[in-house]
Design brief:
Helix content: 55-70%
Structural class: alpha+beta
Largest sheet: 4 strands, mixed
Number of strands: 8
Distance between the termini: 67 Å
Radius of gyration: 21 Å
Strand content: 5-15%
Strand order of the largest sheet: 3-2-1-4
């Protein structure tokens, strides 16, 4: 029987991951540890502590998955990676905000070192990693942000060219990809590749001042969550009728707001919490607005992990919606309304900033 997770000794608590000798064993470790997180530790940890523990779990599983994948490549005659590489993550994993049921969002940076067979090797390697993670219970990204896709698996030079291309076109799709890229975080392989990638990424914002305004235009778009009477707007149709979309109604608007403000002020962090902390310490944003952001984000994380879960093949899944029954609970409804009020306040401030930016455009 696996020992329960210990918050005082995190290295010991994840020992089963490092010792897994197969994909099956690694999946079973994940099942056992997530059960501890959802049952034994849900009430005892603060939302931030819970997310930190969950994301440490995902990081360690991802590193072990890469290791097992390389072992499989060697066994099948492909050998060790011919040049250095960096396995990286985006999305909620990049921001260290993944839930127990988050899907894949990853990529690969490949060294520019010459090797005749490296393209074929990393095509195979990237595909195998995505497949292996899926076997471990990480659903493939519907948007195809994965190292199995050529757009997200490139040599360092090709990545620099891609970042330059995205930042030179301020239309919606390139900016969307640049926004995804902004949450990049290194997981495994050669970290210096990720460092150089980040230098190139942030250089684009220094080179093209209009980039942050383009990000802002994407940021201020989100679904209405409070009506004119201040009541929560729930889903009207479909399987979630009567429920509330926590991810896109509360969480993502705050993530987007913090990301824009961080990029606008040259803050090089991927975590929303760290972005907010840096913005506060630099006094880059008026304190009342930043305070509203931080309080709303803490509440959003709490609501996000409170959505109903279902078990699928021993792993937890969630739609990300609070259901109608939960919304009838006074405390949840009160917390949601208060948080949505804060989100609306932040959103209006960014809308004003966008209008000002648009008036400055030639």
């Amino acid at each position: 029987m696996m020992e329960p997770i210990s918050t005082t000794n995190p290295f010991w608590s994840y020992h089963g991951i490092d010792g897994a000798a197969s994909v099956y064993e690694l999946r079973q470790v994940r099942v056992a540890l997530q059960r501890e997180l959802q049952q034994s530790m849900f009430a005892s940890l603060s939302p931030m502590e819970w997310y930190e523990t969950v994301n440490e779990l995902h990081d360690r599983i991802a590193r072990k998955a890469v290791e097992l994948c390389i072992e499989g490549m060697v066994e099948d005659g492909f050998g060790q990676p011919p040049v250095p590489y960096a396995f990286i993550v985006f999305g909620s994993s990049g921001r260290e905000e993944a839930t127990l049921w988050s899907d894949q969002d990853n990529g690969m940076i490949i060294s520019d070192a010459p090797h005749e067979g490296k393209e074929a090797y990393f095509d195979e390697f990237g595909g195998r990693i995505a497949d292996l993670l899926e076997q471990l219970g990480y659903a493939k990204c519907e948007g195809k942000v994965m190292c199995s896709e050529p757009l997200w698996c490139k040599t360092l030079t090709a990545w620099k060219e891609q970042l330059l291309e995205w930042s030179s076109d301020l239309s919606w799709e390139p900016i969307r990809n640049l926004i995804i890229a902004s949450d990049m975080r290194f997981i495994a392989g050669e970290s210096s590749l990720a460092v150089e990638w980040l230098e190139s990424f942030y250089e684009q914002f220094r080179r093209v001042p209009e980039l942050s305004d383009a990000v802002l235009r994407n940021t201020v778009k989100h679904k209405a969550t409070l009506n004119i009477l201040g009541r929560v707007v729930t889903e009207r149709f479909g399987e979630h009728a009567g429920g509330f979309d926590v991810k896109y109604g509360v969480y993502i608007p705050l993530v987007n707001s913090a990301r824009f403000l961080a990029l606008h002020h040259g803050i090089q962090e991927s975590s929303t919490v760290k972005r907010m902390e840096r913005l506060t310490s630099l006094e880059a944003v008026p304190f009342p607005l930043m305070d509203a952001c931080q309080r709303a984000f803490t509440a959003a994380l709490k609501l996000r992990r409170s959505t109903p879960i279902v078990m699928q093949q021993e792993l937890q899944q969630s739609s990300g919606f609070l259901d109608e029954k939960q919304l009838k609970q006074k405390q949840i409804h009160y917390d949601l309304r208060e948080t949505l009020g804060l989100v609306k306040r932040v959103h209006r401030a960014l809308q004003r900033q966008l209008r000002f930016a648009e008036r400055r455009r030639p």
